[in-house]
Every structure is written in C-alpha cells, then in structure tokens.
Design brief:
The relative contact order is 0.20. The protein is α/β, with parallel strands linked by helices. It folds into 2 domains: 1-35 and 84-125 and 179-253, 3-Layer(aba) Sandwich (Rossmann fold); 38-81 and 127-170, SIR2/SIRT2 'Small Domain' (2-Layer Sandwich). The radius of gyration is 19 Å and the shape is elongated. The protein has helices spanning 6-19, 46-49, 55-60, 62-81, 86-96, 111-115, 143-153, 179-190, 210-216, 243-247, and strands spanning 23-27, 103-105, 122-124, 127-134, 140-141, 166-170, 194-198, 220-224, 237-239. The chain has a 6-stranded parallel β-sheet, sandwiched between helices. Strands 5-4-6 form a 3-stranded antiparallel β-sheet. A hairpin with a 5-residue loop joins strand 4 and strand 5 (140-141). The chain is built from 10 helices and 9 strands. Bound molecules: nicotinamide-adenine-dinucleotide (NAD). Nicotinamide-adenine-dinucleotide (NAD) binds at residues 28-30, 32-34, 37, 39-42, 45-46, 106-109, 126, 199-201, 204, 225-227, 242-243. The site of nicotinamide-adenine-dinucleotide has 27 residues, from loops.
C-alpha cells in the first residue's frame, strides 16, 4: 500500500516500528544523498558521469586500475566531509533502543558505523571504500598509503605481501559477493518481523533479493524511496518521499 502522504506514512511506519520486536533495515545509496554523496542512478548520479569499471578489467588492465584510483581520490573530499544524515541517525536510535539487531547495507561509505552502529553489526554487501585490500591475500591498506604510492610512481600499487593488485575494499561488478556478509544478511532477513528497504532502486542483484526473502519468511516489508521500485506492489507500506523527512521524526527515540 502506498502512503497517501508523508504524515500518514510516518504515522503508519511509527505503528509498525512500535509493534515490531526485530527490525532489519536494508539501505542503499539514497540514504546518503542528503550527506552529499551522490547515488548511482538519479540524475547527476555517479553513473551519469562514469561507466563502472568491472572487476575483470580492473585485474587485467593497469590503465583501468589507475583510472579506478583516480576516480576514488577525486571522491575523497566528498566521502571525507560526509556525516551521518537523519536516516542514519534514526536507525542508530532504534539500534540503541534494542529494536535493530544489525543492519544490511549496500553502501560503501561507512556512515552507519559513524552514526553509532558497531562495525560487527553492519553487514556490508558491497564492501567499504574507506580503506583498501589486496585482491589476492586480503591484506588491508590505508588509503593514505595508496595515494602516496600513486603520487610517487604514477600507478596503482600492488600488495607488498603477494604482489596482487590493491583495490578499495568494495565489491565491483563481476566480483564475487562476500560469503560471510551474504550468510548474515540471509539470516537477518529470515528472522526479523519488520524489514525496511531504504533508498535503494532494488535493481542490483543479489542484494535486491533480501526484501522479498524477508517478506516470504513472514516479515512486514516497508519501502522508503522517492521513486517507484519493482517491489512496491508486494510491500505492506510504500513511502515515496524523502528519506530524511520520513525518518527524521524517529531520531532520538
Ligand atoms: P541507486 O542509486 O540504484 O538507488 C538509490 C535510490 O534512492 C534511487 O531510487 C533514488 O531515487 C533514491 N533516493 C535518492 N535520494 C533519496 C532521498 N533523499 N530520499 C528518498 N529516496 C532517495 O542505489 P542502490 O540501490 O544502493 O544501488 C547502487 C549501488 O551503488 C550500491 O550497490 C552501492 O554499493 C553503490 N553506491 C553506494 C553509495 C554510498 O555508499 N553512499 C553511493 C553510490 C553508489
């Protein structure tokens, strides 16, 4: 059911939150747009500016690796300046109140951790862009180290342990999904009684399968997104409004 307007959507959401024992949020890029980080698909979003670099191209082409890192450094002022928004803060309040056991996110921006979620309670399906990892042995690297190498040599660094390429700790198109994060997200989706899909166009799979999985396991499903999604018709409540406006009333509860 689509909420008639924002106030009635917020009221219905409040009732559902009050009735729920275990709420699992699933967030996408839309929760972070008010923090200054563009999403992928909105006008002006990242895809309208840059074609994504698939994983196999990153691995096989030093030029693609250089381009990937140049883009990442170009985004650094944006990521570094971003602070949790009203959506992040509202979810952190519900987490502190014991209503949310853990959160599933497609985001790579670290803002849920910054809003107060313990790192262990943020299930990152697409990784995290605030640090880097070797794609071979998984050794973690600080972005400051990567940038210094880049500036010194003009190219992307390889791992000091095993010589494989170093990449932001994110999942690119064509890269396999992190097994442990998928396992935990499945468990969370199957055992909640309220699932909140927030700020995702729900077109990136397999992540987009979690709302339906929760619904099929008996949870109520709420979708908060300012444009329609393909899963709206199965949701118990659709709030087609701004996320900050919708979740703002739940900050501090
Ligand atoms: P998406 O860009 O496909 O969809 C975002 C959705 O949020 C869109 O439908 C848009 O209309 C909506 N939206 C944007 N701002 C909103 C607002 N203020 N209120 C309500 N709705 C709003 O994002 P996705 O579904 O998360 O998939 C894209 C992939 O891109 C993800 O896998 C993610 O890893 C990655 N990504 C992450 C970030 C980030 O970490 N902040 C940013 C860009 C892309």
């Amino acid at each position: 059911m689509i909420a008639r307007d924002l106030p009635s959507g917020v009221e219905q959401l409040g009732d559902m939150i009050a009735q729920a024992a275990s709420i699992v949020p699933f967030t996408g890029a839309g929760i972070s747009t008010e923090c200054g980080i563009p999403d992928f698909r909105s006008p002006g979003g990242l895809w309208t500016r840059n074609r994504p670099i698939p994983f196999d191209e990153f691995v096989s082409s030093p030029a693609a690796r250089g381009e990937a890192w140049r883009r990442r450094f170009a985004m650094e002022p944006t990521f570094a300046a971003a602070k949790p928004g009203r959506g992040h803060r509202a979810l952190a309040s519900l987490y502190r109140a014991g209503k949310i056991p853990a959160i599933i996110t497609q985001n790579i921006d670290n803002l849920h951790q910054m809003s107060g979620f313990k790192a262990d309670d943020v299930v990152e399906l697409h990784g995290n862009t605030t640090y880097a990892r070797c794609i071979g042995c998984g050794q973690a690297y600080d972005l400051v180290w990567v940038k210094a190498h880049f500036e010194r040599s003009g190219g992307a660094p390889d791992c000091t342990v095993c010589d494989q390429p170093v990449k932001t700790a994110t999942i690119s198109f064509g890269q396999s999904m992190p097994e442990e994060a998928m396992r935990r997200a499945t468990e969370l989706a199957q055992h909640c009684d309220l699932f909140l899909a927030i700020g995702s166009s729900l077109v990136v799979w397999p992540a987009a399968g979690f709302p339906m999985m929760a619904k099929n396991c008996g949870a109520r499903l709420v979708i908060i997104n300012n444009e329609p999604t393909e899963q709206d018709e199965v949701a118990d409540l659709v709030i087609r409004h701004d996320i900050g406006e919708t979740l703002g009333p739940f900050v501090g509860n």
